[in-house]
Design goal:
Layout: H1 2-12, H2 18-27, H3 29-60, H4 68-73, H5 84-99, H6 105-119, H7 126-147, H8 157-190, H9 196-211, E1 234-241, E2 293-300, H10 307-320, H11 349-365, E3 370-377, E4 381-388, H12 394-399, H13 401-408, E5 414-419, E6 424-430, H14 439-444, H15 446-449, E7 456-462, E8 467-471, E9 478-481, H16 488-500, E10 508-513, H17 527-530, E11 532-533, H18 545-569, H19 574-582, E12 597-602, H20 605-612, H21 614-626, E13 632-638, H22 648-653, E14 656-659, H23 665-672, E15 685-689, E16 695-699, H24 704-715, E17 724-725, H25 750-760, H26 765-772, H27 776-788, H28 808-815, H29 817-823
Parallel strand pairs: 9-13, 9-14, 10-12, 11-17, 12-13
Antiparallel strand pairs: 1-2, 1-3, 3-4, 4-6, 5-6, 7-8, 7-16, 14-15, 15-16
Helix pairs in contact: 3-5, 3-6, 5-8, 6-7, 7-8, 18-21, 25-26, 26-27, 28-29
The structure holds adenosine-5'-triphosphate.
The site of adenosine-5'-triphosphate has 14 residues, from helix 16.
Length: about 800
């Protein structure tokens, strides 16, 4: 085939120069495959030759008295290697003369290149394989020579023997032994990154695996699917075909002749389906019960990347961003997270049948005929999609919604009539055995790993097992509500963890408000990495209402400052601004700086509204209305979704909403503008409304110890000197002094700063940063104070501020008016 291709190319482009032809060939996939296969062939050949050589080398040694060509050219010479003379010659050179047993590293490396070139598959990065093979070649061969008492053996090869001989002459046998132990340990630590911590983590993971139950309940049908179990996971769908129904005893009673068939999903299927199970996925066995025929459609799980790949990406990410102050910062590894449950979705065929019959019979009772039923099994609920018989009006089913739910007599039934865009009616029925969606499974998903979102949040899995990753930056603010104990805190943690797993501390800062004082305290550990706070406050996590008001107002100032910066940079949003800043098109001397996203999280919003009312509502509404372009995003969560908490003004500015289970339809309407949240089953079962649709999701689950591990991992790394400082907000009551600050409120370096500004006749924060070795925020604050004291003029966009004091003498008079009066 490759040949044909090449020929066609040749005839169509007869005048292509020779090197052009090579270039073409190098791009040709079939050439890659052939080259890769050739390497794999050579690797296999060498491996077999070497193995055989280890057994036959002694017998063949006499033949190697001849020269290579003599040996090859004379058919009279015979060798015992299984690959004959070529095999024996390879063994003699690579194993005996050169590397000994470590020669096996060569075919391993060649094989790895072959796999990569032809199948684009590589279990480990090639560079790593190369480093391992080179080290092993030298170390193992020398070590085997050492073990043999510094002798040239087949295992040590010539290289090992000579290296060991030299080293022994320098340091003796004992020294040599110690050197081997040391070099092995050093290599393990430096190259393989084995540390006592990683060993402990590995042991912990093994113990956890061992302690997990391995077997499935026998009552449930679990049959392996034909797709590879590890990467492709399946959310089964069941089609119940009503057409082949036959009538026997009673007219109403449909006869069920079940027939199951596994299909992989069609690419054009509306929902990409995935399941969190990494074991062979279950497939319902054919059963012969009454009812319409059903097909099981197995949907393929989107690929989960291997941990290695994921961690490699994380590493690459760390190196990629050029703006990093914490260049050695590492995003948390995925092994801090635990796989909850066994990650399997178990399909109980009996349960499916029973639910199907129940739905069919119930609808029959209301004289609604069904043409087809399809079931999609998700982690918590199964969606039965119904196509009613021609002529049945959807409004009829919609009106019967409550009756149908009642007849099905299960908690958490939700009827969607019709499912938007699908022309079917959906009935969601909770699974008897809900499976937990682990945060780990969601974060390893290809979707999350490859996301290009600015603030990606992995919320959980949809009813068809698709991982749902949303962009908080696009939402642009999120309202979360749900009765107590239904999974709100877990949801908040999932959102925060998603961002922590993707974004460097330079890119995002959190402002955490936690009136309950318990939920978010774990994030204290990452204060100097990811948190933002008001200057001169002790705790970054805000628990006190008065501080919340100051913080919200401070965020409003930050918002205004950012708008000024955007205006002077002539860009429309934070993305364009940062891109321009990274390309060095904005001058830091003029106050420009890289702007991290700021995510404000308020855990118990009801408490705040109850105590501070308008004082918090107004800045929140202002932020929510304006802050999207400049990268400030709000997440507010509440247990009490009543209209005096989630007011019209809040609702109007929070288009994205999440509802966990609530106790009444009214609450559901308050949050979502629709019912449904009252029919959820709790434990992370949620409805997500990104704007105009409702998606039922099982929220990703991570436990408090996992959050602890993540924050600990981040907290133990090098940090910024302090939390990200928000602009100072002086409350109305304390700003009575006409704008000028009292002396005690001024920065300790205020006077020094004033002198520098006057001496240089230049009013810029960066000058102060350089001269006084200050951080941007502090320098910025001093500039504000200098302005308030009338020493420099106001901010003038791209121009430097004007210095209003001409010389040092005038400055001294201004700073110490009393003493000046006495002197004069
Ligand atoms: N996504 C989930 N998957 C599985 N179980 C969950 C999930 N979310 C929550 N749960 C279970 O529900 C319990 C309560 O969850 P959580 O603490 O998040 O509730 P809450 O709504 O924040 O409650 P409160 O408002 O009282 O703080 C958890 O301890 C856990 O057992």
């Amino acid at each position: 085939m490759a040949k044909t291709k090449k020929q066609t190319k040749k005839t169509s482009k007869p005048k292509t120069p020779l090197f052009e032809g090579w270039k073409e060939a190098a791009k040709d996939r079939s050439v890659h495959v052939v080259v890769g296969l050739a390497l794999i062939f050579i690797a296999a050949f060498m491996t077999i030759a070497f193995i055989s050589f280890l057994f036959s080398w002694d017998a063949d040694q006499s033949q190697f008295q001849q020269s290579f060509w003599e040996l090859m050219g004379n058919p009279e010479y015979e060798v015992s290697n299984i690959l004959s003379k070529l095999g024996a010659a390879l063994g003699q050179v690579f194993v005996f003369k050169w590397f000994g047993i470590a020669a096996f590293a060569i075919p391993i490396f060649l094989g790895a290149i072959g796999l990569k070139v032809s199948f684009k598959f590589s279990p480990y990065p090639l560079l790593k394989i190369f480093r391992v093979t080179v080290f092993l070649s030298l170390w193992l061969s020398a070590f085997t020579a050492f073990l043999a008492g510094v002798e040239h053996t087949v295992l040590s090869g010539g290289v090992g023997y000579y290296v060991a001989t030299f080293l022994r002459s320098w340091m003796g046998m004992l020294g040599l032994g110690l050197l081997f132990v040391f070099t092995l340990i050093a290599w393990l630590v430096l190259v393989m990154k084995v540390t006592p911590d990683s060993l402990a983590a590995g042991a912990k993971a093994i113990l956890q695996k061992l302690s997990r139950p391995k077997t499935e309940p026998i009552a449930e049908t679990t049959v392996p699917t034909p797709t590879p179990a590890v990467e492709d996971e399946v959310a089964p769908e069941v089609d119940f075909d009503q057409n082949e129904e036959t009538e026997e005893e009673t007219v109403e009673e449909p006869q069920l002749k079940s027939e199951l068939e596994i299909k992989t999903p069609q690419p054009e299927a509306e929902v990409e389906v995935e399941a969190s199970n990494t074991e062979p996925e279950p497939k319902p066995e054919p059963t012969s019960s009454e009812g319409p025929e059903m097909d099981v459609e197995a949907a393929v799980e989107e690929e989960s990347l291997s941990e290695k790949e994921v961690n490699k990406k994380v590493k690459e990410f760390g190196e990629y961003d050029p703006k990093l102050d914490l260049s050695r910062f590492k995003l948390p590894p995925l092994d801090l997270l635990v796989e909850h449950g066994d990650g399997n979705i178990t399909i109980d065929q009996e349960e499916l049948e029973a639910n199907k019959n129940n739905i069919v019979n119930t609808l029959q009772n209301y004289k609604i005929g069904i043409e087809k039923i399809k079931a999609t099994i998700g982690p918590t609920v199964t969606l039965y999609e119904i196509i009613p018989e021609a002529g049945v009006r959807i409004s009829k089913i919609k009106n019967l919604e409550d009756d149908i739910a009642l007849s099905l007599a299960a908690l958490g039934i939700r009827i969607i009539a019709p499912i938007p865009g699908r022309g079917t009616i959906g009935i969601e029925v909770p699974n008897k055995n809900a499976s937990v969606v682990s945060m780990r499974a969601v974060l390893t998903s290809e979707k999350f790993q490859n996301t290009k979102f600015d603030l990606p949040v992995a919320l959980g899995k949809t009813i068809s097992n698709e991982t749902l990753v949303a962009d908080l930056a696009k939402m642009p603010h999120l309202l979360m509500a749900g009765a107590t104990g239904q999974g709100k805190s877990v949801g908040l943690n999932a959102i925060l963890a998603s961002i922590l797993y993707k974004k460097h501390p330079a890119q995002v800062k959190f402002v955490l408000v936690d009136p309950k004082k318990v939920e978010l305290t774990l994030y204290n550990k990452i204060e100097r990495h990811y948190l933002a706070k008001l200057p001169d406050t002790e705790d970054a996590i805000i628990t006190d209402t008065s501080k919340v008001i100051n913080t919200l107002n401070s965020l409003c100032i930050e918002m205004d400052n950012r708008y000024e910066l955007l205006k002077s940079a002539m860009v429309r949003n934070i993305k364009e601004y940062n891109a321009k800043f990274i390309n060095r098109k904005l001058n830091p001397e003029e106050g420009h700086r890289y702007l991290p996203y700021i995510v404000l999280v308020i855990d118990e919003f009801a408490d705040l509204i109850m105590t501070a009312g308008k004082e918090v509502e107004t800045p929140i509404a202002r932020l929510a209305q304006l802050a999207r372009a400049i990268g400030i995003h709000l997440i507010i969560a509440t247990q009490r979704p009543s209209v005096n908490v989630i007011t019209g003004i809040i609702k109007a500015n929070f288009p994205a909403r999440i509802a966990f289970r609530v106790t009444s339809k009214i609450d559901s309407r308050t949050i979502l503008d629709a019912g449904g949240a009252d029919q959820l089953i709790g434990k992370g079962d949620m409805l997500f409304s990104p704007g105009n649709e409702l998606i039922r999701l099982q929220c990703a689950f991570l436990d408090t110890p996992e959050v602890d591990e993540i924050t600990e991992y981040i907290g133990n790394q090098q940090a910024y000197p302090e939390a990200y400082l928000l602009p100072e907000y002086v409350g109305e009551e304390s700003s009575g002094g006409g704008g000028a600050l009292a002396d005690e409120d001024r920065d300790a370096l205020f006077e020094d700063a004033a002198r520098i500004v006057v001496i240089h006749q230049q009013g810029s924060a960066s000058l102060l940063q350089r001269k006084l070795k200050l951080g941007y925020n502090r320098a910025g604050r001093i500039v504000d104070q200098l302005e308030a004291a009338g020493i420099i003029g106001p901010f003038e966009g791209s121009k430097a501020r004007q210095v209003l004091v001409p010389d040092e003498v005038s400055l001294e008079q201004k700073l110490n008016p009393g003493s000046a009066d006495i002197e004069s």
